[in-house]
Design goal:
Layout (H helix, E strand, L loop, with lengths): L12 H18 L1 H11 L5 H11 L6 H8 L3 H13 L3 E6 L2 E9 L1 H21 L5 H29 L9
Antiparallel strand pairs: 1-2
Helix pairs in contact: 2-6, 3-5, 3-6, 4-5
């Protein structure tokens, strides 16, 4: 996987501040101590990699391990190990791929749905506490802008991937 350097495009001060804020949010939300506190609140003893994979499976249909790896931006072997951990905990199961019986997909079990529900509820309670002084309209606007930003990130990533594919192979992956 080769990466192309980003074009030397001037960055507005507003975009630079958004990047700084997102970096701070990411740092705060991914600290080990924060993760441990969230897992204790949720009553779910999973590591960060397992929670990330569980969230991805919960937000989509059953996926092949390779698709999960691509969506998470990790190596397939990492997904295999994490799926094994989640299978042992009863959170996911492997099911035959209806498009190719030789392949398997990963799907949530009832225990996995309960675990992700508890994790999300604990996270939402923490966020509610942090944002308790915000006006409902400000929260709605922030949520709308975050969704818009994520959609634009995904669209930009898809465009970059299409541009990096060798000529004549676009859409064949």
């Amino acid at each position: 996987m080769s990466t192309q350097p980003l074009p030397d495009v001037p960055v507005s001060p507003e975009v630079a501040e958004i990047e700084r804020a997102l970096t701070r949010i990411t740092y705060l939300s991914t600290r080990a101590r924060q993760h441990d506190r969230l897992m204790a609140m949720a009553g779910v003893p999973l590591d960060r990699a397992a929670v990330a994979l569980l969230r991805q499976v919960a937000d989509s249909e059953a996926l092949r391990p390779g698709e999960l790896a691509a969506r998470l931006g990790v190596e397939a072997s990492h997904v295999t190990r994490t799926v094994q951990q989640l299978q042992k905990s009863g959170c996911v199961s492997r099911v035959p791929d209806p498009d190719d019986r030789r392949a398997q997909r990963i799907e949530l079990t009832d225990a996995g749905r309960q675990a992700i529900s508890r994790i999300r509820a604990a996270g939402a309670r923490g966020m509610q506490l942090a944002l308790s002084q915000w006006e409902p309209e400000d929260l709605r606007q922030l949520a709308s802008l975050f969704h818009r930003m994520v959609d634009d990130f995904l669209a930009a990533a898809a465009t970059v991937e299409e541009e990096q594919q060798p000529a004549g192979t676009a859409g064949t992956a």
